[in-house]
Amino acid sequence: MSESILDEIKSTAEGLCKYVEKGRVAVDSFATDEEPIIAHEPNLKLLKPLEVFSSVDKVFAALDCSTMPLMRGNNFGAYMFRVASTLVKSQHGKEVNWSYQEHFQPVYGNETFRMTKLRSIRLDYESKMGLSLLNQLARGDYLILDGGSYFGGTTGFSEDFYEECRRHGIKLLAIPKRTPSTITLKGTDFLATLLTKHTAGVWFYHPYDEANTDEHLYGDISFVKLNALTPIAFRCDIMEYLTEGNLCELLSPLTALSQDARCLGYPVCLYLAHQFTRTASPKILHYREILEKELNEEDPDIFRELLIEEKLANFRSQVLYGAKHLWEWEGSEIV
Description:
- A hairpin with a 5-residue loop joins strand 4 and strand 5 (95-108).
- The protein has helices spanning 3-22, 111-133, 159-167, 190-197, 247-251, 268-276, 281-298, 300-313, 315-320, 326-330; strands spanning 38-39, 47-49, 59-72, 76-89, 95-108, 142-145, 171-174, 182-183, 203-209, 219-225, 234-239.
- A nine-stranded mixed sheet has the order 2-9-10-11-7-6-3-4-5. The protein has a two-stranded parallel sheet with strand order 1-8.
- The protein has one domain (3-35, 54-185, 258-333).
- It has ten helices and eleven strands.
- The protein starts with a helix and ends in a 5-residue tail after the last helix.
- By secondary structure, it is of the alpha/beta class.
- Helices cover 35% and strands 23% of the residues.
- Helix 1 packs across helix 8.
């Protein structure tokens, strides 16, 4: 175990002790930073076909980050973050290189605040890892993010990351797993409505909405269906500096990464990045034991108070649903 990990766990323990002594701080700063809801009706004239590729002489990189709680109360959480990257070379037998980093940090506040704060921390870690990847990518290679194309503000990727991708000529796209903020005028899911009207083939729909950097949206919102055999499509944000080019030529190479049966049309580089953010339960338990040791050495009475709050907050999961460990029962998005 690296010294930096031990230092971050020790710092987390010190932060939790301060929480018990001083209480949580004011937590209103994230209240208005939710992703805005956008409503449009499907226009089939905006659908355009894609070309299907079996291989492409490009590198496809992807980033993702998970959150695992080591300890959680009603007003605090001590979290492990695991940020992972993959680089897939499509032409050469889909050669895959990957890396990950682990970080630890406390977050204070109620569940709603912590959810937004954790997203901000994850995007910060992903931005930093993305910047470190650029020296492994050539002009014209792809870098795909998990999430919308929001940069800057308190809950977006870093603007420096965006500018460096543009300067290096990287084809930067953002493909989130879910699309709750894109709806029809009557309030139903836009993509589901679109797919009921047109499911055949592979295609892209552009634009659903255009980039607006004043609102921190740095890419045109579009949708892509990358596998003809699946009924599933995904939101795909195309960075503003790429939208003047041929979008069919830009997006068609993604089909070479979207034929894997595990992924249902989701690019395999993103799928693998998500898989590599997972951490085995025994390893998380080991980190939990280190945190408990640090807390007990810091102040046994404070440690006991934290454990009491934790039991109160997790009564439903542990008693009613029988979860042995918090991270096993509720998965990587628990706050």
